[in-house]
Amino acid sequence: MRFRWFRRTGIFFIPCSPLGWLVLLAAIGFAINMFFYIDGRSHSVSDTLIGFTPRLLLLGIAYMLLAFITSAPSRKP
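and the corresponding structure tokens:
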């Protein structure tokens, strides 16, 4: 039996174990740290957004992929 880290709710993946919560909190912490790093080295709002948006999308894709792999299979009603 596989251990489930996430539960799928629509298009979202909700953590349902301590490891799932750890992954979510680490992703949020990494995104905040990344934002302040990019913001400290940019000269305008557009520089910050241009630097942050692609990295945030890659982080979101990595989170969704990990959540998809470690989630329970969806049941069709």
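(Above: one complete record from the training split.) The longest helix spans residues 45-69.
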